[in-house]
Amino acid sequence: MAGVSHWWNSKSRPAQWGYMVPVVIFLLALPVLNPPIITTEPYTDFPIALFNAAVFALIAIGLNVVIGQAGLLDLGYVGFFAIGAYTAALLSSPDSELGVRYPWLVIVPIAMVVTMISGVILGTPTLRLRGDYLAIVTLGFGEIVRLLADNVDPLRGNRGFQNIARPGGDFPDGTPIFSQTDALGFYWLAVMIIVIVLLFMGNLERSRVGRAWIAVREDEDAAELSGVPTYRFKIWAFAIGAAVGGLSGTLFAAQVGYVNNQRFDITTSTLYLAAVVLGGQGNKVGVILGAFLVSYIPDRFQFEPTYRFLIFGVALIVLMIFRPQGLLGMRQHLLANGRQAYQKLFGAGTAVAPSGLTASSKARGDLSETVPDDHAGTSPRGGGE
Amino acid sequence: MSEPSSTDTSLDTPPSEEGLLESLEHMDAAERAEHDAAVSASVAPDREISVAKGETLLAVDGLTVRFGGLTALDDVSFDVRRGEILGLIGPNGAGKTTCFNIMTGVYRPTSGDIRLEGVSLARMKRYKIIQTGVARTFQNIRLFGAMTALENVVVGADARHRTSVPGALLRLPRHRREEREAVEKAMALLEFVGIADRAADKATALPYGYQRRLEIARALATQPKLLCLDEPAAGFSASEKDGLSELILKIRDDGYTVVIVEHDMRVVLGVTDRLVVLDFGRKIADGIPDEVRRDPAVVSAYLGGDLDEESDQ
Questions:
Q1: Is A6 within 8 Å of A357 (Cβ atoms)?
Q2: Does ipTM top 0.90?
Q3: Are residues B178 and B298 in the same domain?
Q4: Are residues B231 and B305 in the same domain?
Q5: Phi and psi angles of residue B225, each rounded to the nearest 5 degrees, phi first
Q6: Taking CA atoms, which of A99, A300, B18, B32 is between 20 and 30 Å from A195?
């Protein structure tokens, strides 16, 4: 494990993206290959299961910004997902009282802005709170959104909205790429959106913004006394996390084509949180893995309807016993020029990982009091080994 | 700000095969001196020590702080002059750390004011105080444990940066320039405080003495006019204390002004240009170390113990 991450960290960022190309191609081909054992069929359509997992992964990436990076415990994240889905519904369903039918591509930026604003509205009063208090307020936010969907008349409660806009386009044989019955096109779209979002998240992480978030997570007072405008960057974390949540909401609404008040309860928020914790807070690849498992396991064991959630629960517990820090440990690259800088100091040949696996520090081991661990969880909530 | 420096930490030149740190080991004296000068220039790019030395930098004016019924500071006034090392001493509970906390915005004064170059810090947001020019270290080390040493220092340098989310998201030119400058500066700072050999290690993995020095580097990265060191020698061995004193003097000589709270009298008397003594929240003495240590009020405040005696402990 350490060897793999060492090798990976010695590659430049463009090279890492280069290595990702075959992985992404494999992921895109996965529903077509429909490999035995892995497939969820015949009980659940495999492309749909994969699409749901991809939406879950996108949500986990957004929630990871808030929880994994900025260290803000948000238990109402489903609220943003719901706002994204309902924005799509209101702007395109014939059931909507707004009476407009915007195309999906127009809806996406609008929904992201709306959720972003709702993130700022939630964050402005609440981000002065810390820890448990923040968790409770966000929990309340998620419930408020759900209750609004239940009770506000124009949001149609349980009746919901039909015929929500989906992206256009046809395969050469004339069947639509994006349809409710065949999720293949939607799955491909979701994977591409994840790639783009990951690219932007990587940019943020290797910047003042990413450093500010980690600093807030590690020690908020020290961050502020080192010149980090903590409040502003916490709001940004909420806003960006919310925007990604809204994006996933519109993607989900488009594929299902139908939104009502049934999917946005506290259990869903908890599953999002489970995906992030399971995969590894603060590790983008980790939370994607976590989201995949949380979404995939119940689908895979659908043939055993009585016990599938038991299997799911046992799997979660076993994972948390053996990997309390998540499948992949916290890991971040916080400098745009980090690799260059470390190579400047320790020599062009050294492969330098942010964990401190440098040739030089090993050679100077006499100074070392603690052996730096590759995945040492160091935050109060990070969970060490 | 400073033009791309010609220091060895510049990222414009490709890394050498052996790396900067190893090449330092077999430099001759002249090359080494040149290198150190370049590092110093990068650490303190705009020092104007000869011009402004001696004028008032920070004015503490009638500072009173009450926590409920407890008066932690009672009408304390003193000046910090540009280019000096001021020692803030006193027995436990005298109000030294409270004074520090007011200077850096952790607490708000009940009355009185505190001004840096005439600008009041008393009601300013904490991160603004840093930008105005007061940086600090902590009595109990508070680094960002999951970050590398280099990243910790870059967080300090970020205090001077203007890039926010849009710039970082799209990697705009200003963001790229700030990133590069910050890393170069942070590398120079790590070398300046003497811990560059562990730049890539997580802060929690560093030895204790390195962590203390890393805090100083992070504070210096914010380009402070005034550096506040809160018990920097706590937990140090005698030889580490000497090394620290040397570093503090070097920081002063590079044009920074330093306020230091410290219990260890050998460090205090070794580095300070002036002392302010607090006792039960009141200022009882203010002057050059030689005068202050003979001041009867100071001697009695230290329970009859002589300052020299304490230094032997």
A1: yes
A2: no
A3: no
A4: yes
A5: -85, -30
A6: A300
Q: Are residues B252 and B110 part of one domain?
A: yes
Q: pLDDT, tens digit, for every residue of A234-273?
A: 999 999 999 999 999 999 999 999 999 888 988 889 999 9
Using the Cβ of A120 and the Cβ atoms of chain B, whether some distance falls under 8 Å is answered with no
Kindly state whether residue B14 falls inside one of the protein's structural domains: no
Surface-to-core class of residue A359, CB atoms within 10 Å of its CB (0-12 exposed, 13-18 middle, 19+ buried): middle
Average pLDDT on A334-349 reads 83
Q: What is the mean pLDDT of residues A224-238?
A: 94
The model's confidence at residue B195, banded by pLDDT at 50, 70 and 90, is very high
Q: For chains A and B, what is the number of CB pairs under 8 angstroms?
A: 220
pLDDT reported for residue B55: 86
Contact predicate A78/A272, CB 8 Å: yes
* CB contact burial B153-190 (16+ within 10 A = b; e otherwise): bbbbbbbbbebbbebbbebeeebbebbbbbbbbbbbbb
Q: What's the pLDDT at A310?
A: 87
Q: Is the pLDDT of residue A286 over 70?
A: yes
CB A275 within 8 Å of CB A84: no
pLDDT of A326 over the 80 cut: yes
Q: For residue B210, tell me if it sits in a domain.
A: no
pLDDT at B91: 87
Distance from the Cα of B307 to chain A's closest Cα (Å) equals: 32
d(C-alpha A124, C-alpha B29), whole Å: 57
Residue A41 three-state SS: coil
> pTM for this one?
0.87
A201 touches chain B (CB under 8 A): no
Q: Which residue has the higher pLDDT, B301 or A25?
A: A25
Inter-chain touch A347–B18, beta carbons under 8 Å: yes
* In this structure, CATH architecture of domain A45-308: Orthogonal Bundle (1.10)
Cβ atoms of A37 and A173 within 8 Å: the answer is no
Same domain flag for B57 and B201: no
Range of the structural domain that residue B198 is part of: 19-46+145-205
Length of chain B: 313
Which of B18, B130, B207 is opposite residue A369, by nearest beta carbon?
B207
- Look at residue B74 in the predicted model and tell me its pLDDT: 92
Domain co-membership, B129 together with B267? yes
Q: How far apart are CA A242 and CA B171, in angstroms?
A: 22
How many structural domains compose chain B?
2
Residue B278 domain-assigned?
Answer: yes
Please name which of A228, A188, A251, A218 lies closest in space to residue A62, comparing C-alpha atoms: A251
Mean pLDDT of B276-296: 90
A243 phi/psi in degrees, rounded to 5: -60, -40
B109 and B169 part of one domain? no
Q: Do B197 and A240 touch (CB under 8 A)?
A: no
Q: Is residue B219 part of a domain?
A: no
